[in-house]
Amino acid sequence: MYTMQRILILGATSRIARFVAYEFAKEGAKLYLAGRDTEELQRTAEDISIRFQTPVYTSFFEVLDFQNHGAFLCGVLDELGGLDGVVLVLGHLGDQDEAKHNPEVARYLIDTNFVGPTFILTLLADYLEQQGSGFIAGISSVAGDRGRQSNYVYGASKGALSLFLQGLRNRLQKTGVKVTTVKLGFVDTRMTFGKKKLFFLASPERIGTAIHGAIGKGYDVVYLPFIWFPIMLFIKAIPEKLFKKLKL
Ligand SMILES: NC(=O)c1ccc[n+]([C@@H]2O[C@H](COP(=O)([O-])OP(=O)(O)OC[C@H]3O[C@@H](n4cnc5c(N)ncnc54)[C@H](OP(=O)(O)O)[C@@H]3O)[C@@H](O)[C@H]2O)c1
């Protein structure tokens, strides 16, 4: 069990992130909420500090501004007085049909979901490694487990993130720093609003609580909701010769 006292959440305007934050705040953790919509972050921070009587800091964070990541991290460490864990929630789905034909749209997705997270997580991993304790949790997707015609650009970006987190876990396993990969199925958020055929759609509250639980238990990889674990086992087992003919 970790002492989760000073927690950074990246992409804190996500509804999933909000419920993760609630769970840490219930334990009396000091929170640092980072994202692009500073007004929304401020409202969330006030809500959490009133509900749970815990200090909550906020700051602007754009994952694509690589050159500012170092200064951003210094600010986090100053305000929190150190760091015990980070939850990287941020991500972008975008228009998958556009991403298939417009390389700039595809690059934006890869940069947001993989290149930017790689940049900030590399800085964070070095800090936590030197400290010899803490955790990194990254929110990935079941879409990253196998490339499908409907969303392979997003899937590739999330698959790359999953692979990065897997390697990081391997690198840090003897240092006292835990790395958790969270592979989400469909969750009822802004990202999925208005989309059809979302089976096993989960609420952000249920998922946020489960993410916090998985971090607390020190899981390496977790599928949420759990039903996606057997589903993806099955999907990954389909031979490529057959899989490429399926309309998925
Ligand atoms: N919903 C699902 O079904 C589902 C399924 C699998 C995985 N996921 C993953 O779950 C995570 C949370 O997503 P969500 O469903 O809660 O969607 P969401 O409400 O759209 O949240 C996405 C978050 O990422 C932030 N973000 C996007 N681009 C950014 C950038 N360039 N720099 C900094 N922050 C950026 C957004 O900030 P702004 O408020 O500034 O836009 C927002 O806080 C994402 O990683 C997503 O890929 C979701």
Structure description:
The protein has 248 residues and is an alpha/beta fold. It has a single domain (6-243), classed as NAD(P)-binding Rossmann-like Domain (Rossmann fold), CATH 3.40.50.720. The chain contains nine helices and seven strands, in the order E-H-E-H-E-H-E-H-H-E-H-E-H-E-H-H. The protein has helices at 15-26, 38-52, 69-80, 96-101, 103-131, 152-172, 204-216, 228-237, 240-243, and strands spanning 6-10, 30-35, 56-60, 85-88, 134-141, 177-184, 221-224. The protein has a seven-stranded parallel sheet, sandwiched between helices. Helix 1 packs parallel to helix 2, helix 1 (15-26) crosses helix 7 and helix 5 (103-131) packs parallel to helix 6. The longest helix is centred in the middle third of the chain and has 29 residues, at 103-131. The chain is globular and about 55 Å long. The structure holds NADP nicotinamide-adenine-dinucleotide phosphate. NADP nicotinamide-adenine-dinucleotide phosphate (NAP) is lined by residues 11, 13-16, 35-37, 61-64, 89-92, 112, 139, 141, 184, 186-187, 189-192.
